[in-house]
Amino acid sequence: MQLLPGFRDFYPEDCSLRNYTLSIWREVAARYGFLEYDGPALEPVELYKKKSGGELVGQLFDFVDKGERHVALRPEMTPTLARMVAARERDFKKPLKWFCAPTFFRYEKQQRGRLREFIQLNCDILGDASPAADAELLALVIDVLRGFGLGPQDFVVRLSDRDAWMQFALGKGVPQERVLEFLGLVDKLERTSEAESVRKLADFGIELGAVRAFIANPSLETTKLQGILADLAARGLSDFVQVDLTIVRGLAYYTGLVFEVFDRGGKERALAGGGRYDGLLELMSDGKVKMPALGFGMGDVVLANMLDEIPAAKAMRDAWLAKRRPAEIYVIIADDTRRTEALGLIQTLRNAGLRTDYSLASTKVGKQFQAAETLGAEFAVVVGAEWPSVKVKTLATREERLLPVEGLAAALRA
Amino acid sequence: MQLLPGFRDFYPEDCSLRNYTLSIWREVAARYGFLEYDGPALEPVELYKKKSGGELVGQLFDFVDKGERHVALRPEMTPTLARMVAARERDFKKPLKWFCAPTFFRYEKQQRGRLREFIQLNCDILGDASPAADAELLALVIDVLRGFGLGPQDFVVRLSDRDAWMQFALGKGVPQERVLEFLGLVDKLERTSEAESVRKLADFGIELGAVRAFIANPSLETTKLQGILADLAARGLSDFVQVDLTIVRGLAYYTGLVFEVFDRGGKERALAGGGRYDGLLELMSDGKVKMPALGFGMGDVVLANMLDEIPAAKAMRDAWLAKRRPAEIYVIIADDTRRTEALGLIQTLRNAGLRTDYSLASTKVGKQFQAAETLGAEFAVVVGAEWPSVKVKTLATREERLLPVEGLAAALRA
C-alpha cells in the first residue's frame, strides 16, 4: 500500500510545518483586512474550460462521476472565485478583499517544487481597477513573505504590465487575434534559443532587438506601474520590487499588472505569482457581471524549500513550533490507588484549557517522568501520598513545589 | 455555472462558521495531548477495498487517472491512518494519540445532515488495548462537544460492545463465518419490521425475544464496559454516557467497544461514532504490524445543524465570531495630500500585527467612517491637518483623542 506519486503524508511533524505556513498566511491576510472564503474541491469540468488558456486543462484530474457529470478536482481557485462573486455580486460592498488557502490538484510531471496535491494561498481584490488596489495586493504578498522572516535580501517581486506589451505588439502591427500568441513567445523568451526566438518573432515581423530594447528600457510613464511603485514607496517597500518586463505569465486571462516573486538566489521556481484579470468575471457570468479584479497565488512547496535554507526564517519557524509542544502538563500517577483522583484532576486541568497528558497504563514513575520530558511538558504533577496536595516539578529547572489540588490550574498558569 | 449537488461554497460568513468548528476541534484535541496529522485526499482505490465492509466502496468518487491508476477521493481516514502508522510503526512511542480534521468525499443520496463533501474530526489512539484508552477517547468526544457549549441535556454517548455480541452469537451456535452477518441484523433491528426480524433471526436459530432480553439486560461484568464506565465516572462524565447494545456500527472492521453520539432530542443523525478496530493494522500491513487501535469521527454538518438549535451553543459561537471582526483599525484619509503619510502609517500598524483597513479610493470622510462601522472596527484613525498627530475615534463610545503618530500602535493596544 503506497502513496500516489506527487501526494504527501503529513505525519505530525510535517503537519506542524504545514500548520505554521497556514497560520502565517491567515494572520497576515487578516492584518490586511482580507476575509477567508472557500469553495468545493470538485467542480464541473466546464468551469475550467470556460476561461481560455488551456494550460491547466491538460493537467486536470477529471472524470465522470456516478451521476454522469464530468467533474474535475480544482487545479486553481480563480474560476471558483469568479463564479461565487458573480452569483452574489450585489450582496457585497466593493472592493472585496478575500483570501483562501485550500488544496489544489494538478497532474504535473514530478520535479522539485511541484507536487500533484498542494496548498496555496490565494488573495484577491475585486471591484477596484486602480493602481492603489494593485499596490495593496503587492504589499500583501511582500508582507506575507516578511511574516516568515524573509527580507529584501531573500526575495524580489518582479512587476510587469501586459497592457504595455499589448500596446507594443499592436504598435508593431501584430493583429489583435495574434496578440496572445505573441505574449506566449515573450513568456518563453528566457527559455528559448536566440535563433528560434529570431525565427518565431520574424513571423510577427518583429526583430528580437526591438523586444530586448523594450525590456531593457520600458517607458513606464505610459503604464500604471509608476503609480504602483509610488504607493509601495510610501509604505517603505521599494526594496522588495523591481520592474521586469520579461514577466508575462502563462494564463490567458491576465490583463494589466502581472508579477512573480522569486528568491534572490534564483535557485527555486516562483514563490508566488499573480496579476489583474479584469475581464474574467464578465466571461464567467456570460456578460452579466463586470468587475475588475486581481489576485495572486502562493504555494506551500517552494516556500517550504526556501524557509529551510534561510537561517533567520528557519529560526522563526522553530520558535513557533517550540511554543506548540504536545503537552504543557504531564500528570504522573505515583500511587495507582489514586488513579481515580488523578483522572478527576486531569479532567479539571483540561477543563481549564491546559494541554494535559498522562500514562494510560500503570507504569513506573521514572518512565512517566521520561514521557513528560519527551513530550516537552513544562510541569510534571505527581499524584501520590501527599493527596489532596501534589508535587509539581518544573521540568526545565528541576524545581519542586507542593501545591494543593484545589486551584491548581490557576497556580500553574501564574 | 453551478455548484455540484452535495458540495458547498463557503462565502466569508460560512467560512467563519467552519473555522469556528475547526478551531474548537483542534483546541480540545490539543488539550488531550493529541497530535495533528493528515494524508492525501486521493488514494489508490485498493486502500478502501482492502478492508472488508463494502459500504463505503459503493459511495466512492473513484476514477482512472492520466497515469492509468485506479484512484479514489478519500471517504474516510482510517485506512490512510493505518497505512501511515504501519509504515513507520517503530518511529513512534506507543500509545499514539493522533487527530486530523480533513475533507472527505462520499457519493451519497442527498438528505439532511449528509453532503458529498464534508469535514470530519478524526481522533485515534493506537497501541493501547486497555479500557483506559477507551475511556480517554470517550472523554475526548464528550469534551469536544462540551467545547461547543453543549451539555448532558443536549447529547448522549451510547456505548456498546461488539465482543459481547460475538460471544452472544457464538453462544447461540452462530458459526464464526456468519457472525458479521448476524451483527448486520442487530445493527438494522431498529429499522426492520418485527416480522422480518423474527424471520431473519430464525435463519440463525435465534429468537427475537432472546436478542431483546440481551439488549435490555446486558451482563456488563463480562465486558470491558464496566471499566470504561468507572474511568469516566472518575472524570465526572457519567451523565454523558449510557450503555445501549442496539449500537453495532456498520463497518466490518470494528471490534470491542463501539459507540455513537446522539442529540437528546433525537432529531438528528449521529453526531459522532467510532470504536475499536484492533485487527485493522494487521490486515492493512499484511500481518507485519499488530497494534490495537480505536477512534471516532465527528462530521461538521450534523454538528452545525445542532449548534443552530441550542441557544447556549449559539451564543458561544456568536461570541467567538464577534471577536474576529474583519478590521480592528480603519484609517480615514481626510486630506488626500496626506495619502503617502497615511500609507506609511497603515504599514506601521500592520507591521505591529494590528488588523488595519482603509479606502483604496479617495472618497468622502463620511463614507470612510461608514466603512469603518460596517467592518466593525474598534478605532477610526483620521489622517488630516493634525499630522504628525492623528484623531483617534473609539467607534463604540464616540470618544475622540488626538495622538501622535509616533508610538500609535502601542497606544491603541493599551
Features:
Rossmann fold; 5-stranded mixed β-sheet; 2 domains; homodimer; 38% helix; 17 strands; 414 residues; 9-stranded mixed β-sheet; elongated; 21% strand; alpha+beta; BirA Bifunctional Protein, domain 2
Major sheet summary line of chain A: 9 strands, mixed
The poorly predicted ranges of chain A are none
Strand content of chain A: 15-25%
Give the chain pair forming the largest contact, with residue counts: A-B, 93 and 93 residues
Q: What's the CATH class of the largest domain in chain A, please?
A: Alpha Beta
Mean pLDDT of chain A: 93
Look up the CATH topology of the largest domain in chain A: BirA Bifunctional Protein, domain 2
Can you put this structure into words, describing what you see?
2 copies of one chain form a homodimer. With 414 residues, the first copy, chain A, is an alpha+beta fold. The first copy, chain A, has 2 domains: 12-320, 2-Layer Sandwich (BirA Bifunctional Protein, domain 2); 329-413, Rossmann fold. Helices cover 38% and strands 21% of the residues of chain A. Chain A is built from 15 helices and 17 strands. In chain A, the strands form 3 sheets. In chain A, strands 1, 5, 6, 7, 8, 9, 10, 11 and 12 form a 9-stranded mixed β-sheet that branches. Chain A has a 5-stranded mixed β-sheet with strand order 14-13-15-16-17, sandwiched between helices. In chain A, a hairpin with a 5-residue loop joins strand 3 (62-64) and strand 4 (70-73). The mean pLDDT of chain A is 93. Chains A and B meet through helix 1, strand 1, strand 2, helix 2 and helix 3 of A and helix 1, strand 1, strand 2, helix 2 and helix 3 of B.
